Each structure stands twice: as structure tokens, then as C-alpha cells.
Amino acid sequence: MLRFIIRRLGALAATLLISSFLIFAAMYAAPGSPESFLVQGRTVSPEVLASIRAQYGLDDPFLVRYGHWLGGVLTGDLGESLTTRQDVASLLASRIPTTLWLTAYAAVLIVVFGVVVGAIAGLRGGAFDTAVLLGSSVGFAIPTFFAAVLLMSVFSVTLGWFPVFGSGSGLADRMSHLTLPAVALALPAVAVVARITRTAVVEEREAEHVQIALARGVPWRIVARRHIVRNAMLPVTTIVGVNIAALVAGAAVVEHAFTLDGIGAMLINAVQQKDFAVVQAIALVLVAVFGVVNLVIDILYAVIDPRVQLGGESA
Amino acid sequence: MSANVLELDDVRLALPSRHGDRTLLRGVSLSLAPGEALGLVGESGSGKSMTLRTVLRTEPPGARVTGRVLLDGEDVRLLGAAALRRVRAERLTMISQNPRAALNPVLRISRYLVEGLCDARGESRDEATRRARDLLARVGIADVDRCMDAYPHQLSGGMLQRVVIAAAMASSPRLLLADEPTTALDVTTQSEVMAILDEQRREHGMAMLFVTHDLELASAVCDRIAVLYAGEIVEIGTPAQLHSAPRHPYTRLLLDSRPSLTAKTAALPVIPGRPIAAYEVEGGCAFSGRCPWVAPRCSEGEVALVHDAGRATRCLRADELTAELAGPAVSEPAGEPVQAGETEETA
Ligand SMILES: Nc1ncnc2c1ncn2[C@@H]1O[C@H](COP(=O)(O)OP(=O)(O)O)[C@@H](O)[C@H]1O
Ligand SMILES: [Mg+2]
Questions:
Q1: How many whole angstroms separate alpha carbon A26 and alpha carbon A189?
Q2: B80-106 b/e with 16+ CB inside 10 Å = b?
Q3: What CA–CA distance (Å, rounded) separates A112 from A106?
């Protein structure tokens, strides 16, 4: 187990290295140049332009710039924002809590509503099942941005139950500020997860060992929990994990719509302003989050299913 | 109230399908005395498993079942959910063909065993664990600790079937339903597992309804054998009666089509034609289409199961054919023989 985790962390480091190169190259190749943003359309003399380019090292060869940047990243120096001249690491640090809270909230919604509702629909069947099937189709079809606007206009503007903007401070205030964004963010994933959970549960119900457990006189409650839902969690775990990992990326749209000061909104701004250092740093964070979430899923998978052997060693 | 452990009285089963209702059982009647072993033998698809399922009430959803299934005189078909669960936990038990599919792959063996005692029967967890270990030892498992902690995929099919047998014995039920319990095992473990099953059954004084396509195996372990064809019983008798003097042509052909241990034949005789399903029977004797002794009156109406001196036969010509069916192997009747022997499907 430990060796598996160490190996996977090594692989994650390699992935990050390759990603960092690709991200850097993509930024390098992207149209438009940062200095044109810095000068804001004003006409400046070629000397000034040259001094700006020199200051940010924009004239160095690609590999030199990459090496320089990578060296910084490895020592915790993510560079300096082109637009605000602030340290990117501390900028990120101030933004990360909001995104973390938002995605954690959405992840809880996915697990509670997606998994629980899907499992009940699969176990109970009937009208509830039909309602879940319909609801999940709708939930999946609504674009996140539209959902955000809709939720805001109904629950914040019309009903006034939730604040419209900002991310709040303190637990209760945060929860109230983040409820609508988290709902908007989680909605498509809840729909997918509910649907997959339901299908997995319905399939597992038909399994021979389930029928046999019932035929042995094991009460339905126990069979449902121990044999049906538990085994159905195998495929569901993967789907939940992928969806939670994707939340971090999806957070950009929601943070933008609800004007939250998370790294998602920061990413959108940075892209618009060609703020290389910030975009690169956030992209790296996203890759890292994806890798870590996937690692956690694999470990969880081995815990749920004893047949899975982590990296060829007995679990 | 009868003294029989199990009595099936004209059990019929139909399943809805795209082509209308399909009859799978056409009036199965049989009885089991306490401690008796009754073999239910027939070709694949004849309805052996379906018969067992009507007893356990695990038939496919939507199935319509009529007739009575009396367990100690009580009709299990009429039980409410709670009473059915109690009957399943305490008085009936089932061993199925494939032990690997019977156990939850993600739970330990100990869970499976303890669950049957603790969750189904309400024994305390400690007591259940102690008993589970004891049961494993009694089915010949040497390393009980290892087995209790193992997951199903870590054990062989033979070991798993022993675990299933141990679990089946746990409640010392009145009746054991065994559906081809050794078919999925490799040949070397088959007889071993069969021996353990038989020994355990006798020790606990259980009656057994033993389903198999193997007439020889049934003859070895059963007190009586019922031969099933197209969803109905065509003959019931003791193994000795069936072997020395079969009274139904189908039984005779089943006996002829098994490999002989003494005489080496060039080609094994096979039963002509293909087995028909219960829903394909159109009046008359179900076997008439394949029967070498068929007479015109055989297809004229339903044939009744006639009881006579402890055995039963469903054949209009049983009396006229007595001598011929008991005689030496019949020569191949006219018509192309078609392979129709034991084409056992892997469920
Ligand atoms: N779940 C099911 N749905 C529809 N038909 C079934 C089902 N299970 C079995 N059958 C049909 O019922 C007949 C009897 O099956 P079964 O009792 O399993 O035969 P066997 O004697 O081999 O155990 C077969 O023709 C089979 O195709
Ligand atoms: Mg069968």
C-alpha cells in the first residue's frame, strides 16, 4: 500500500513536470503579448517597450525562460503577477480557501444528493425512481452558467434567502454565501452521479449473490446496505471522483458568475489579461488536484474491493 | 397436515414473454418424506431449477405460479414477507451450481457465514462466529482461520462449495434444495464435495431435493428419482427400479445414452430429436415427437401420471412396453439420430 502510494506520487510529480512544460509552451505560443496589455494601448517609445521586455525576461530564449520559471516553482516562487506585481504564491494562498470551500461544499452535495438519491431510486423504484430519472435529465442538460443565473434570480433576488455576491467569512456566513454557487456547480455532477448510482444499484439487485442472500432469509434492509449498495459503490466511486476532480475546473464559471474571489475567477481574469505567471500557477494547481483526487480514488477503490490489488501487491 | 416435509401439488409456472405467456412447468407433483433424498433429473431446460425456485419463491419476477407447495403441510406460496423470510432462514436451504456467484465477492467468508446465523436467524454475533468456525471444520476445511479471513476470490471452487455447504447446514433445516451443486466444479473435487454434502445431510437428518442432469449421480445419492421432461414429471421410482425396469421410454433412452463402464461401444446412442421446452408442447404426450415407441393415440390428449406400487409413470403404453423397456439396449429406431444428450449450459 505504502509503496503503491509512493510510486503514484512519483508518477504525479512526473505528470506535473510534463504538464508544466506543456502549459508553459502553450502560454508561449498563445497569440498576443503581455507587454501589449501592460501598455494598455498607449503609444510608448520602443525604448520603454524594450525595458519592459527585459524586466520580465520576455526576450530570453524559450528554454531559458522555462528553466528559470521551473527553478522558481521548485523553490516555492511562482513568480510575480504581470498586472498587480504581487507575488503569485501569496495571491493564490489568499484565493484558495474560497475555491476549497466551494468545491468541498459541492462535493458534499454530489455525495449526499447524487449517491443517496440514486441509491434510493434504485432500491425503491416506482414514482420516486421516475422522478429521479426525469430530474437527472434536466439537471444534466442545464448549463452551469444558466443555472447560476437562475438560482441567483430566484433565491437571492426574488426570495432574498441567500446573498448574491461574495464569499463571506466564518462558517455559517460562508455556508450561506456559498450555497447557491455550490448548488450551481454541483448540479450536473449530481445528475450524472445519481443516474449512475441508480443504474449500478438496479444491476446489483439482480446479482445472484443478492438473490441468494435474500433466499437465505437475510433481511432486506441488510441485503440492501451490505450487498447491493456497497457493491454498487465500485463503479460509483470512480464517477464521483472524476466529477469532484472536475469541480475545480468548473469552479471558474461559478466563481465568475457569483463574483467569488476564488482561483477560478482569478484564472479567468489572468487569461484575459495574459498574466502568464498566474495562469501557469493555477493550471499547475489544477493538474495537481486532479492527480491527488485520482490517487485517493484508487486507494478508496482498493479499500472497497478486496480483489483490486494495488500495484500488484496484496492489499 | 401430512407427514411429508415437502409436497408439490400440480405446480404450474408461466412467464410472460414477448411471444405471450410461456409455460415452463406443466403441473409438477412430488413429495419428500423426512430425511429422504429425491433426485430431480432431466435435460437442460426441462425446468429442474424452476421447480426448486417455486419452493424457495425465487422465481423470476412476473412469473405466475399455481398449485400448492407444502412445506410441513404449510403452503409457502401463501406466506407473507415476514413469514417467508423466517421459513427461508430456518427451514429451507439452498446450494446452487456456482458458489463463486453465490457469495458477495467483496466480503470475507466469515461475513457470509455469520450473516446467515446472526442477521437471518438472530443469533448473537459471538455465538454465530463460534458456530461458523465449527461448521467449517466439519466440512473438512483444515485451516479455519485462513478460510474465515479469506475473500471468495482467494479460494478454489471446491473450497467455496464447502463453505456454502457449511452455511447450508448452519440452521439444520428440514429441507435442502441442491441445484447441480457439483456441476461447476472440476472433476477431481466433484466427488469429494458430493461426499461431504451427503454425509452432512445424513448427519443433520435433512431431506434433500437434488437437481442434476446426471442420472448416475442421482442414482448414487438419492432414495428416489423423478425424471422431468418439458416441465412435467414423466417417471418416479427408486434408482434400482429405474435401472432394472424403466417404465417410461424417455427414462430408458436416458439410461442408454450414458457411457457404460463395462462395454465399449463404438458410438453412444443418443436420444433422437431435440428436447422441447414446456411451452412447445401441443396436447398429447410431450415426448411423443422423439419417442421410438410412439403410437397414434399418444398425441391425442394429456397423459396422466399413473401411480402404481410405489412408482409413477406418465406413458399410455407403459404396460404394453414393460418387457421391452426392461430388455437389452434398444436398437436405433428409424430416423437420423441427433445429438441431444447432456448439453449442459453454464448458467
Ligand atoms: N429468468 C428466466 N426468464 C425466462 N425464461 C427462463 C428464465 N429462467 C429459465 N427460463 C427458461 O425456463 C426453462 C427451464 O429452465 P430451468 O428450470 O433453468 O432448466 P433446468 O432444468 O436446466 O434447470 C428453460 O427453457 C429456460 O430457458
Ligand atoms: Mg438449472
A1: 29
A2: eeeebbbbbbbbbbbbbbbbbbbbbbb
A3: 10
Q: How far is A81 from chain B (nearest CA, A)?
A: 51
Its sign, for the CA torsion A258, A259, A260, A262, is: positive
Q: Given B86, B96, B119, which is nearest A222 (Cβ)? A: B119
Residue B262: the pLDDT is 61
Cα–Cα distance measured from residue A222 to residue B264, given in angstroms and rounded to the nearest whole number: 55
Give the integer Cα–Cα distance in Å for B165 and B195: 11
Q: What is the pLDDT of residues B257-310, one digit of tens each?
A: 876 656 665 566 777 888 888 888 888 899 988 899 999 999 888 889 998 888
Residue B139: how many other CB atoms lie within 10 Å: 22
For A150-165, what is each residue's pLDDT tens digit? 887 777 777 778 777 7
Closest CB to B85: pick one of A217, A231, A306. A217
Q: A304 and chain B: CB distance < 8 Å anywhere?
A: yes
Contacts of B85 in chain A (CB under 8 A): 217, 219
- The model carries a pTM of 0.81
Least confident range from A22-31, A38-47, B5-14, B147-156: namely A38-47
**What is the pLDDT at residue B40?**
97
- Name the DSSP letter for residue A87: B
What lines the ligand 1 site, CB under 6 Å?
B 15, 24, 42, 44-50, 60, 277
Record: contact A216-B88, CB cut-off 8 A: yes
Show the cell assigned to B247.
417404465
Strands of the B306-308 sheet, one edge to the other: B92-95, B175-179, B207-212, B37-41, B224-229, B232-237, B311-313, B306-308
Residue B343 CB neighbours (<10 A): 12
CB atoms within 10 A of CB A287: 18
Amino acid at A90: S
Q: Which residue has the cell 406413458?
A: B315
pLDDT at A167: 67
Whole-number Å distance, alpha carbon B12 to ligand 2 midpoint, is 17
Mean pLDDT for B235-261 is: 88
Half-sphere CA count of A234, side-chain side, radius 13 A = 17
B102 contacts A209? CB cut-off 8 A: yes
Q: Shortest CA distance to A104 belongs to which of A275, A262, A248? A: A248
pLDDT in tens, B27-86: 999 999 999 999 999 999 999 999 999 999 999 989 999 999 999 999 999 999 999 999
Antiparallel, parallel or unpaired: β B306-308 and B74-75: unpaired
Instruction: List, in sequence order, every residue forming a beta bridge with B212; answer none if it has no partner.
Output: B41
CA of B93 to the centre of ligand 2 (A): 17
Considering chain A, what is the average pLDDT of its residues?
Answer: 83
Q: Give the closest ligand to the alpha carbon of residue B61.
A: 1
How much distance in Å is there from the Cα of B48 to the middle of ligand 2?
A: 6
Which of B90, B103, B119 comes nearest A218 by C-beta?
A: B119
Element (H, E) at A47: helix A46-55
- By three-state DSSP, how is residue B12 classified? strand
Q: Is the pLDDT of residue A37 over 50?
A: yes
For residue A231, what is the nearest residue in chain B, using CA coordinates? Answer: B106
- The protein residue with its alpha carbon nearest to ligand 1, atom 17, reads B47
A218–B94 C-beta distance less than 8 A: no
Give, for ligand 1, the residue of B43, B46, B96 to mutate: max count of ligand atoms closer than 8 Å to Cβ.
Answer: B46
| Partner-chain contact A212 B120, CB within 8 Å | no
| pLDDT tier at B170, thresholds 50, 70, 90 | confident
Q: Which ligand sits nearest to residue B44's alpha carbon?
A: 1
Interface contact flag, B153 A306, Cβ < 8 Å: yes
Q: Which ligand is nearest to the CA of B45?
A: 1
